[in-house]
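Reagents: none. Just compute today. Outer membrane protein beta-barrel domain-containing protein.
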Amino acid sequence: MKTIVFLFFLFWAGMVLGQDQKSFKERNSVALDCFVYTAAKKKTDSVVRKNIKYSANRQIISFEEDTLKKQPEERSFVTLNESETGIDAGSIITANLKVVDKKIMIYPWYFNYNSKTNKFFDENDVYIKMKDRVNYGFPYRSIQVGLITLPVKWYMDSKIGNIETSLNAMINVGYKFGNSRFVKLPNEEKPREYKTGFSVNGLAGISKIELDENNTSLSQNGIAKGNVAAISLGGSLGYHYNDFTLMIALGFDLPTSNRKNWNFNGVPWLGLGIGYNFLKFN
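Predicted 3D structure written out:
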C-alpha cells in the first residue's frame, strides 16, 4: 500500500512540476483563398460642418465641425491583382494568427525577396471573417524547449527490481507540429482557440542512481550501496493539447562510476511524463 501511495505521489508531482514547454513563434500555414479579406490600415476621415448659423445676408457666422469615420473598403484577396500584392491568390504563406473582433487576423512572416508583398501587408489588414459553427484549422510547426520529469522509469529487463522512482529532470528540445484551430459558437461571445499537435524530442540530463541490494544483486563485485551520478540520454514522442502534454520516452542512464556494479548498465528504460503548463508567458 505504501508503494502505491508513493508511486501516486511521484506521478502527481511529475505532472505538476513536469513539462514546462516553451515554443518559439509558431509558423502557421495559411492559404490566401476566397475566405481571406483585406482592408487598408490607413483610414481617411471626412470633416463636415454642422449647426451652421447664417447672417441676414447669408454669410456664415458660426459652425461646428464633426469628423465622419470612414470605413476602409473591404476586398476579397482573390479579386486583387498580383501587380498590387506581389503574390498570387491561393498561395500558402507562413504567418502568426490572432483572433480580434471575430476575425482571424493574419500576420505574415517577412518575405525576404519580395518587397512589394511586404509593403502590401504593412499597409493592409489581412483576415478571415469567422462564421458560426465553422472550425477553422491551420497547420503549424515550431521548435520547443522545455523541462521534463519522468517520475517512473521502467528498465526494459525481466529481472526483479527494474522500476526506478525519482524526480530527475531532463532538458527537452524538439520539433513540434500540429493544428491551430478556431471556432465561433452562436451562444458564446468570444471564439474558442485550441491547439493539438505532436512532437519529436531529444532528451539530456543528469540524474541520480541509488545503488542498493535490489539493483546491484547481479554484480560479480558484490552488492554496492550509495548514490551515483548518471548522464541520462534519450528521445521522446509527445502529444499536446493546449497546455496539456503527454510524453513517452526511451533512453539510457550512463553511471559516472560503479557502472559494472549496476544491474541495468546498458539496459534501455521506458518512461512516461504528463505535464500541464500553469505558467503563462507572452
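Residues 30-136 form one domain.
Action item: order primers for follow-up constructs.
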